[in-house]
Amino acid sequence: QLQLQESGPGLLKPSETLSLTCTVSGGSISSRSYYWGCIRQPPGEGLEWIGTLYYSGNAYINPSLNSRVTISGDTSRNQFSLKLSSVTVADTAVYYCARAIVRSSGWYHFDYWGQGTLVTVSS
Amino acid sequence: QSALTQPPSASGSPGQSVTISCTGTSSDVGGYNYVSWYQQHPGKAPKVMIYEVRKRPSGVPDRFSGSKSGNTASLTVSGLQAEDEADYYCSSYAGNNNLLFGGGTKLTVL
């Protein structure tokens, strides 16, 4: 059974860089059959797609966050990571890791999600 | 790119049917058959209920169905049950490897 586990800083100060690691078990991030994504949800608000990574290293980022986001993979540890720079209070959210199946050579929905981790930005 | 538009709330009595809409544009919902619907219970991660407009993953009851007309997609829940009370989010592929989510709809079972 596939499992995704997020690990994050919990609390950050404004202007710092958020580093989130997603550890995958029961599946491989090197598989050509899947993409790996990050999604966030501010408290009491809706979902926002952040970005998606393919085994090749290609990463696709939400244009509204593009200048601040990096997503990369570590196949030796079967992990992928999100870095979000220059955080503000508006970046406070539950951050989720998720898997998307390759469909028609692309990715269009997430079928497995981690439990999420709350990251709070506060001075 | 703006979020897809969903009504903030919907409700129905047990056994009834309820439909939740998701409105986008010709660049997202109307342009691709890649609309998905997610169910989220409080404090839990989202769960995909419908993908590619009308396909149901294994294990999702057939009470859940999806459709699309033009720039608007819909999720219908038939035979409402208490456990269907949750937040529902639509998402759509928006081209150029972009994904949009809707603002979410809180479904209440009366």
Characterize the structure shown:
Chain A is mostly beta strands. In chain A, β7 and β8 form a beta hairpin. Chain A starts with a strand and ends with a strand. In chain A, strands 2, 4, 5, 6, 9, 10 and 11 form a 7-stranded mixed beta sheet that branches. In chain A, strands 1-3-8-7 form a 4-stranded antiparallel beta sheet, with no helix packed on it. Chain A has strands at 3-7, 11-12, 18-25, 34-41, 48-54, 59-61, 69-74, 79-84, 93-103, 106-113, 117-121. By secondary structure, chain B is mainly beta. Chain B has no helices and 9 strands. In chain B, strands 1, 3, 4, 7, 8 and 9 form a 6-stranded mixed beta sheet that branches. Chain B has a 3-stranded antiparallel beta sheet with strand order 2-6-5, with no helix packed on it. In chain B, a hairpin with a 2-residue loop joins β5 and β6 (72-77). The mean pLDDT of chain B is 96. The A-B interface holds A 39, 45-49, 52, 60, 62-64, 96, 103, 106-111, 113-116 and B 1, 3, 32, 34, 36, 38, 44-48, 51-52, 57, 89, 91, 93, 97-104.
- The fraction of residues in strands of chain B falls at 35-45%
Could you tell me the radius of gyration of chain A in angstroms?
A: 14 Å
Largest sheet of chain A at a glance? 7 strands, mixed
Order of helices and strands of chain B: EEEEEEEEE
Q: In total, how many beta strands of chain A? A: 11
User: Largest interface, per-chain counts?
Assistant: A-B, 23 and 25 residues
Assembly type of the shown chains? heterodimer
Estimate the mean pLDDT confidence of chain A: 95
Q: So how many helices of chain A?
A: 0
- Beta content of chain A: over 45%
The SS-based structural class of chain A is: mainly beta
The stretches of 5 or more residues of chain B where confidence is low (pLDDT under 50) are none
For the sheet with most strands of chain B, the description reads:
6 strands, mixed
Give, in order, the helices and strands of chain A.
EEEEEEEEEEE
Number of helices of chain B: 0
Number of distinct beta strands of chain B: 9
- State the helical fraction of chain A: under 10%
Q: What would you call the shape of chain A?
A: globular
Mean pLDDT of chain B: 96
- Class computed from helices, strands and strand pairing of chain B: mainly beta
* Shape call of chain B: globular
